[in-house]
Amino acid sequence: VPWSGSYGEVYLGQSISTPTEQVALKVENMLGKRWLLFYERTFYQSLERGAGDRGRVPRLKDYIQDFDYKVNILVLELLGHSLDHWFNYCSNKFSLKTVLQIWDQMLENLRFIHEYSITHGDIKPANILMGLGDNSNMVYLIDFGLATQYRDTKTCRHMKDGIGGGRWHGNSMFGSINDHRGVGRSRRDDLEALCYMLIYSSAVPSLGAMFERPIRDKRL
């Protein structure tokens, strides 16, 4: 299992139609109260039209419901290691050049998903992956399990408090102030979370330690 979390596990798979192609298999138990992969699939489908041109998210290969094994499976383009991995590899600190390169690409990724009326809601190093091969220097945004639609796609009017207002989203370390307060999410919250993440990634040890204090787990 390359990765596992509170919402499922990710396995390395192989394409049947193209034996040389490897894919990422995100697996979720059907017995859970919410089928987050079914929900996440809709966002990948919405983003398929422009992915790779203006913003980078993994391409959706397939979605499978196996009622015998009682699992939902999201088949995605295989990507490289996460920023979390490279952060640890670089002794818990990125250079200013690296931080600026990540910032530049992530701004484009967020601009891209926001144009499709989607907010990510869980910006953190583990959800930002590097590409493979010719795209090994490209930054990809993954995991739309906590994403929301912040405006009506037909009228482009912002929804009151967004979808999911009043409950916690994402993670306490990089979550925006409004997320801590339970206020409905908007584009600014993704940008705020990205800023916190990059400050942490480039921080001197004393600043990094600040994020480890218990206060981060309390509502602001």
Topology:
Blueprint (H helix, E strand, L loop, with lengths): L2 E3 L2 E7 L7 E8 L6 H12 L12 E7 L4 E7 L5 H7 L6 H20 L2 E2 L8 E3 L8 E3 L6 E2 L27 H5 L5 H16 L2 H6 L10
Antiparallel strand pairs: 1-2, 2-3, 3-5, 4-5, 6-9, 7-8
Helix pairs in contact: 3-5
What is shown here, in short?
The chain has 220 residues and is α+β, with helices and mostly antiparallel strands.
Q: How would you explain this protein's 3D organization?
A:
With 220 residues, this protein is of the alpha+beta class. The protein has two domains: 75 residues, Phosphorylase Kinase, domain 1; 135 residues, Transferase(Phosphotransferase), domain 1. It has a five-stranded antiparallel beta sheet with strand order 1-2-3-5-4, covered by helices on one side. Strands 6-9 form a two-stranded antiparallel ribbon. A two-stranded antiparallel ribbon has the order 7-8. Helix 3 packs antiparallel against helix 5. The longest helix has 20 residues. It holds the Pfam family Pkinase. This is non-specific serine/threonine protein kinase. Its EC number is 2.7.11.1. Keywords: Kinase, Transferase. It is an enzyme of class 2 (transferase).
- Shape, principal axes of CA atoms: globular
Give the helix proportion (percent range): 25-40%
- The CATH superfamily of the largest domain is Transferase(Phosphotransferase) domain 1
Report the end-to-end length measured between terminal Cα atoms. Answer: 36 Å
**How many domains is the backbone divided into?**
2
CATH topology of the largest domain: Transferase(Phosphotransferase), domain 1
Question: How is the biggest beta sheet arranged?
Answer: 5 strands, antiparallel
Number of strands: 9
- How large a portion of the residues is in β-strands, by DSSP E? 15-25%
Order of helices and strands: EEEHEEHHEEEEHHH
- Which residue ranges are poorly predicted, with pLDDT under 50 across at least 5 consecutive positions? none
- Per CATH, which architecture of the largest domain? Orthogonal Bundle
Radius of gyration: 17 Å
* Number of H- or I-type helical stretches: 6
> Structural class, from secondary structure content?
alpha+beta
Name the average pLDDT: 83
CATH class of the largest domain: Mainly Alpha
